Amino acid sequence: QFGGGQNPFGDIFGFHQQRRQQYRNQDLNLETTITLEEAYKGKTLVDNVQLPSGKEQVLEIKIPPGIIAGQKLRLQGLGDDRTPQVPRGDLYVHINIQPHYLYQRAGDDLVCEMRISAWEAMLGKSVEIETLDNKKISVNIPAGTQPGATLRLTGYGMPNVQDPRFKGNIMMA
Questions:
Q1: pLDDT tens across 111-156, in order?
Q2: Could you identify which of 10, 28, 63, 163 might form a hypothetical disulfide with 79, taking C-beta atoms 3.0 to 4.6 angstroms apart as the criterion?
Q3: How far is 83 from 25, CA to CA, in rounded Å?
């Protein structure tokens, strides 16, 4: 009879099955807010943070181009350090992005509302638009443009956070 759910064979063969829990200090969470331009270009934040142990730590946080609002960056091993001899937790930085006066983000695309009169839509018009990297682009609105039409400026949107070489579009509605 093998009482109490124990495995007698483990002891006979020289191994003992036992779960060992890895202890470490707690993870910490920070929050920061950046502009849409900073999300477009990427940004490095440097700041002093007071840890729960009372020690101060200088953090350098690299925010990649194209980061998405609500995304969290994980900085491994830079969290809580209160318990000595135990690995530190991780630090998670939650990213917020301020609303922009001209653009709204839709994935990697940037959407802007363009108001033109019925005459301008019928006859066509040239408008200038500024991109998030401060380039000025002249856009021709073709004659006969219908209400509710959307114009696409390919490759002028947000960089893809996974591969910043690829960019979304600017959608003028």
A1: 999 888 888 888 999 999 999 999 999 999 999 988 888 999 999 9
A2: 28
A3: 6
